[in-house]
Amino acid sequence: MTSIDIGINEESRKQIAEGLSRVLADSYTLYLQTHNFHWNVTGPQFRELHLMFEEHYTELAEAVDDIAERIRTLGFTAPGTYKEFARLSSVEEVDGVPEANEMVDILTKGHEQVVRTCRSVIKMTDEVFDEGTADLLTARMSLHEKTAWMLRALRQ
């Protein structure tokens, strides 16, 4: 590969790519949980949750691609295995199939965790004027904050 000269030095790009790898791992773990819950939700809210979870995992599937492509744009390899995601993710794994309300609570916490991970990475982008990554992270935070709000509203 030829050298990258986008106005951000290699060490800064590396640190940002490592942060984005954590965002990617959190997002992929949340995607997998959401898809699992879509398949396995039961109860009085089945239809509403089944359809909502499908909307969420579809959006997350697109997001993980965008995040991975940003890592590649910065000149680094995106993680892509369960082993790497497990090591990098801050989103807690769930054993078994929880009941519907617990699914909502778990996904709320997952979306909030992605926001926190994004916030930790966006600080790095400010220092080196990496607006491309900052824009991606800002959009992700906004979406995850709104999704967490909507999930919390189901439990009130």
Automatic annotation (TrEMBL):
Residues 18-154 form the Ferritin/DPS domain. InterPro entries: DPS_DNA-bd, DPS_DNA-bd_CS, Ferritin-like, Ferritin-like_SF, Ferritin_DPS_dom. GO terms for molecular function: DNA binding; ferric iron binding; oxidoreductase activity, acting on metal ions. The keyword Transferase does not apply. Keywords: DNA-binding. The keyword Chaperone does not apply. Pfam families: Ferritin. PANTHER family: DNA PROTECTION DURING STARVATION PROTEIN (PTHR42932:SF3), GENERAL STRESS PROTEIN 20U (PTHR42932). Belongs to the Dps family. This is Starvation-inducible DNA-binding protein. It comes from Thalassolituus maritimus.
